[in-house]
Write a structure and sequence with these properties.
OB fold (Dihydrolipoamide Acetyltransferase, E2P), 7% helix
Amino acid sequence: MGRSAPVEHRNEVAVVGRVTGAPSVRTLPSGDDIVTWRVSVDREPAPARGEPTSRRVVDALDCVAWTAAARRSALACAENDVVEVVGSLRRRFWRAGWGARRAGWSRSVMDAGRTS
């Protein structure tokens, strides 16, 4: 098999959905502020897997705004707003209150804004 040209790696995510609760500011132990919120995105039912087509299925996606501009954009959103969120997918690790190591995925937001 021949070598092909290098492919540029990218991590880009764009999501359009409904804000499920007011975005909230949290201060990390480092002193940095972040804004967190959740966006609910309707998912198409999958009749091939036996899911009824009348059942509403959603994906609830955690979003985190790290930069000042992204935090301002996130805080301008309110519960039930339909928004577009643009950023990247990040896996993050932290220690739970009892010392256990935890991991999860979140959307690291570069920009967010209402679509309606």
